[in-house]
Amino acid sequence: MSGHSKWSKIKGAKGAADQKRGKIFQRLSKEIYMAAKNSGPDPSSNPSLRMIIDKAKAANMPNDNITRAIKKATSAGEGENYEEITYEGYGPNGVAVLVHALTDNRNRTATNIRVAFNKNGGSLGESGSVSYMFDRKGYIAIEREDLEVDEDAMLMSVLEAGGEELQTSDEVFEIYTDPTDFDAVCEALKAEGYVLAEAEVTMVPQTLSAIAADKETQFRTMLEKLEDDDDVSEVFHNADLDDEE
């Protein structure tokens, strides 16, 4: 993870979110539905649901939408059959790409994802072909603006909370945790008064892969096509890009 910052990608995604809010709400509703259906409708006893609700609120999703998705998951006879699927493949220059999808139509989703790869210099791979290049980690971002805490003090807070790693830039503190400790670390940091700008369990590439300058636009187009698909919830890659517009 050394030297790899998620913050530029997150800022770019939030800018895009303003233009795609309806689609983002639709995806979040599906995630809330699945979390409530699988592990119960009470966020206090369902960490996965609590985390998705926090993500929904950060995206300014109305409370009515959140409540409706939870009620739908617990109403007999009204359930939808969503399936969680991970696709693995390669972009231009062989960069590794993971696609997490939540779908009610496996054939439709597989076709759309395959087209996005094939038309933009990529190809789908077998299960396990690239997932070993990523680690599942808890990720927390705390913005430094108006925060009178230096790196040493933050590191002490992170270690005492149970975090594994701290990365620091002028803008933000980025904290990585074991996924099983993620919820506890979040709560410990919030109890100290820190405001979490971002908090999620994610896939972090172990190393970054260079991509040729003449392939970068093609790769970005592939990412855009994947992320625009209604069934796709998250896309991860290990390309070494200067920014994530």
From TrEMBL:
Family, as annotated: Belongs to the TACO1 family.
Molecular function GO labels: DNA binding
Annotated Basic residues bias: 1-12
Residue ranges of every copy of the TACO1/YebC-like second and third domain listed in the record: 82-239
Record keywords, A-Z: Cytoplasm, DNA-binding, Transcription, Transcription regulation
Record localization: Cytoplasm
Region (Disordered): 1-21
Protein name as annotated: Probable transcriptional regulatory protein FHK04_05010
Keyword hit for Transcription regulation: yes
GO cellular component, as recorded: cytosol
PANTHER family hit by this protein: TRANSCRIPTIONAL REGULATORY PROTEIN YEBC-RELATED, TRANSLATIONAL ACTIVATOR OF CYTOCHROME C OXIDASE 1
Annotated GO biological process: regulation of DNA-templated transcription
Ranges of residues in domain TACO1/YebC-like N-terminal: 5-75
InterPro entries hit by this protein: Integrase-like_N, TACO1_YebC-like_2nd/3rd_dom, TACO1_YebC_N, Transcrip_reg_TACO1-like, Transcrip_reg_TACO1-like_dom3, YebC-like
Pfam family, one: Transcrip_reg
Major subcellular location class: cytoplasm
Top-level lineage group: Bacteria
